[in-house]
Amino acid sequence: MWSFGCAAFELATGDMLFVPKESNGYGEDEDHLALMMELFRKNAWKGLCFSFGGARSKDYFDRHGDLKRIRRLKYW
């Protein structure tokens, strides 16, 4: 359902829903995750299985479900 919603948005508007950027301390993948977390807010994000169920989740998330290298999120 999530993928369908993102694709529908991008098809309808012609814009990317999340445009990740690379920084000195983190890569585009981590910024993309941070952008999604900002949209969902912290508690709602932790309720979803994304942060704990992935094969590479330990590369990006700590045991509390927070991003390891991006600490300051601007929630919508």
TrEMBL record:
Give the enzyme's EC designation.
2.7.11.1
Substrates-to-products reaction catalysed: L-seryl-[protein] + ATP = O-phospho-L-seryl-[protein] + ADP + H(+); L-threonyl-[protein] + ATP = O-phospho-L-threonyl-[protein] + ADP + H(+)
Q: Keywords on this record?
A: ATP-binding, Kinase, Nucleotide-binding, Serine/threonine-protein kinase, Transferase
Q: Name it.
A: non-specific serine/threonine protein kinase
